[in-house]
Amino acid sequence: SASASASASASASASTISLDWFIPNDDEEDVYENISARVGDTVNFKWSGNYPHNVFLHPSGDCSEDDAVVLGASSNNGDSSYTFGVDDVGEVTFACDEGYHCEMGQIVTIKVHVLVPSFEEVQQEPSSLPPSQSTPMPMPVPTTTGGSIAGSPSPGSNNQCTEGDDGNIRTRRDWDQIDDAEKQLFIEAIEEAIDRGYYQKFLLYHADSKSAMQSHETCAFILWHRRYLLAVENMLRSLSPKYACLTIPFWNIMEHYKEQNGNMCNSLGNCARVVTDLGGFPTGFDERKYANIEAEGQIFGGRPLTRLVDDNGERGIVRGNLLEVKIPDSCNYDSVINMFHKSESYVDFALSLQRGIHDDVHDEIGGFMPTYSSPADPLFLVWHSFVDLLLFMWEICNVEESEDSFDPFAGSSCTYTTDGAARVFPSINQTSEMWIKSGNSSIVDDPLIGKYFQGIDLTFQGVSLVNQLGENEFNYDHLTPPLQNFLQNPDVCPHGQWYTVTPTLTPPTSPPTKEADQNAFNQWILDIRISLAERYGEDATMLNAQVSFLVCILKGSRMIPSDDFRQSFLDGDLNDPDCNFFLSQVIRDNSPPVSTKDPSSSLPKIIFIDWFIPNDDEDDVYDSISAEVGDTINFKWSGNYAHNVFRHPSGDCSADGATVIGASSNNGDSRYTFTSSDVGKVTFACDEGYHCEMGQIATVSVNDRDPDSAPSLSQSPSHSPIESPSPSNSSSANSSLSKIWYISIQLTIIALVVNT
């Protein structure tokens, strides 16, 4: 029999996973299943007997030997080990490449987690917690002193940023206004924090039941989160010198509500670009578990979440179906500004903010956002940066600039503390210490992230005024006119006149743009719909697909295209690999294994392939398949046997340089859209076992499409072919969901054109 055991202590210290390495019998086929490890753990393979074995690391994740790396050479007696590093987070596959041993079951895939203690482990004493694997600025473990941390300022403090001439005050900016380079820097910093385990450790403290009670069920809510966000921001800034001046951008959802209200978009999913900027597009529906809290919804695993794994070793997070969720009315500018009018004290304001716009957005995003594990979602950071902006504005309006201290709870007794929280925290005042613990361990004593709480008192008064935060002082830029006007209106913002910072309303790197005539463009779309209705009659599916295709190829432009472009669209002569997906959806029918739309049509077509191992009398089933640039080939299969789809540059069953189109499964639906680089022959094959050699291989002849059939968007009478970016080739039905999201977010006027 086999053994797959781990010798480890109860703590999160590194362990060794011992594997008896052999070909399992039929009744032992699950011997190598459900094995997990952490960064720093070692897997040890041992074997002996009459048959030789070896150990190879398989990047392919299956028995394909492409780029395989030898760990243990073939022998009758072997002992090989591998220690997991940060780059292995996710899944790592090992196999025996001796003969057909891998195909016979001598293969194991191990789920590798970041070295961070589990929810249960953090209930232990701090001494049992793992040390940092990669500390950017080595410092002694901090010690608490009366609710604060002694020593120098936190790593990541303002003094480490040497850019600018504003005294190094950090400035938070609108996500939609910063340029791509700044966005990528922020995403890279989160990825680095995930790799080091810092991101996950901050989550554990937020999810602690007692910490969550003080931070969500008492008037401490807004200040507790300010302190938490500052520490996360300092952590990100400390990871590398290139992040030293980074700040957490804010998500101005009020602008997106305005667009939704003006019929420029119709849901949180396609109004707010930040949703897919931080997490990519959904790839299916499932459950995830973080800090012992479960949630279900659509899976988001794009950057910066590609290497974040949950308590069960599964990648990504979950959110609700945001294409069906409206941005709530509490995100209206008028509603937000009215909140300031009605609040007579800090406590009133905190209550209105939390139970209004704050909770509404958390609830509508769904997934983990309505739970205490909300920091698993990077949207938490940009959203709470916006929440802190509103508190920042309240301070400007209600506290004199000259004041150096402020009691946020003056004249109040935390009146909206729940009954349960009142028993745990019977008295909260300005000198009360924030409860930021996990189990019995205070975050300030955490050897991994405690240092990010240096330099700021942990009392509520310590963070109640931005201008008293010292090396953590911050400001906000990109304030929109409604917010700026509010701050300069003495009737509603009595002390706001001291705040004279002139906001940057657009990125300094962005050139001025000509304002499109929205009304004229809307009328142009309506005219197009009328012309389409004359052609397609009552076929609403085709009509809406055509309009969606049109808005997609306009790439967000509101400028009215040329008459030539309009006619070419109506004649079906336009082609764009990023947008052909819409038209492919409406030409499905009950097709034979290989079928195409009438080749005389100039519209891109979809080629349906019933993907199976052909019988002897079906050996020509995949012969004579042709396509044009812009067409999509769709492989479908189901049954008792697993199949996959790989693109084979070799043109035969050789897997050299092969790229996966559809992963192995018993039920599959994978697509590939041809581009100009595919002109000639393109070969697809199933690399499952010997399926390719048994005939499951198809070579498609790809021809170029007439370039004159694609006029440009120019309003000039002369025109040239549209230049399209390379396509995103879907690899499963879940990828189709991602494609729909990608297109929907581009269609910022879809509500207008479909509902009119």
Tell me what you see in this structure:
26% of the residues lie in helices and 17% in strands. With 756 residues, the protein is of the alpha+beta class. The strands form eight sheets. It has a five-stranded mixed beta sheet with strand order 3-9-8-5-6, with no helix packed on it. Strands 21-27-26-23-24 form a five-stranded mixed beta sheet, with no helix packed on it. α8 (333-342) packs antiparallel against α9 (346-365) and α9 (346-365) runs antiparallel to α10 (379-398).
Summarize the structure.
It is built from 18 helices and 27 strands. It is flat, with a radius of gyration of 29 Å.
Q: Say how many strands there are.
A: 27
Termini separation: 68 Å
- The quaternary structure here is single chain
Q: Name the helicity range.
A: 25-40%
Spatial strand arrangement across the major sheet: 3-9-8-5-6
Q: Could you tell me the strand content as a percent range?
A: 15-25%
Number of helices: 18
Described by strand count, sense and barrel closure, the largest sheet is:
5 strands, mixed
Give the mean pLDDT. 78
Tell me the radius of gyration. Answer: 29 Å
Low-confidence stretches: 1-12, 116-150, 506-516, 587-602, 708-736, 745-756
Shape: flat
- Sheet/helix structural class: alpha+beta
Tags for this model:
756 residues, alpha+beta, five-stranded mixed beta sheet, 18 helices, disordered N terminus, disordered C terminus
